[in-house]
């Protein structure tokens, strides 16, 4: 993998880079948010590891600007530990969120888990027998190209949002708990997912639902989780 490491603390950056290189990954690094954006625009990255307290531009702004032109997976690493900070980071388009202090092996494990999900996407797209397209009437999902259209207009989803929508629509009617969805998306189970998955659902609803406040498609089953409610016009192909 080609990883962009954005971290202002040199000691942490050096340790992470050393471990990443030991895993056989290519690493570009910076402590500056503005320069990080240039790197992402000029080089193909498979993953961004982003600290929030960086020079040049706050990490939140960097994440927001990345999402304007790229769906590259983003893992935020930060000393901000409030739940509201985590929710805000996910709302901006991050795929995962790790707080300091952290164990480097945890970071490595999170990256491998995310990579497994990305590889499964690639394998799914190369498998001719899997469902390639979903037509819900007002929106269309192309699983092969990772494209989603709502009322004829292409909607930009993050990697996590697209994976979440894919899981729900490929098994419509099935109820997934928050823990189940975390496993399907990230490749690991976390009993403390709480509002994190709720925020991903909220972001996804805002992009595909006619009225996100009264969702028609992604339905909450109180005490159980979420399911995709099949509408009469839905077609799988």
From TrEMBL:
Domain OmpR/PhoB-type positions: 131-230
Regions recorded as binding DNA: 131-230
Entries under SUPFAM superfamilies matching the protein: CheY-like
GO MF terms held by the record: DNA binding
Response regulatory domain residues: 2-115
Keywords annotated in UniProt: DNA-binding, Phosphoprotein, Transcription, Transcription regulation, Two-component regulatory system
Pfam annotation, one family: Response_reg
Coiled coil: none
Modification sites for 4-aspartylphosphate: 51
Protein name per Swiss-Prot or TrEMBL: DNA-binding response regulator
UniProt source species: Paenibacillus cisolokensis
